[in-house]
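Issue 218. Parser rejects a valid record. Input:
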Amino acid sequence: MRQRDLRRKPVTEKDFLAGWISLSTMIRKNLQRIKKAAEKIRNDSDILFVIGIGGSYLGARAAIDFVKHSFYNDLPKEKRKAHRFTM
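Output the parser choked on:
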């Protein structure tokens, strides 16, 4: 598939698999909104639950494991500087 074909709006399931090409643009456009929502959740919540099955759960679990070590929830609040993660 040519690059210009990958950049066009997906029209078939096969083409949909190339959606990652525009992902960085989408993230840049929405980053401030995402950060604002994250800050609101941090300020308004004591705990964050991620509920899902299959891929929806595994994606969140992989992201958290990537940025936090296995014993992150056991740290005192002063060292965590954020909420505990429960999945």
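Fixed in the parser; the record now loads. The chain has a mean pLDDT of 76.
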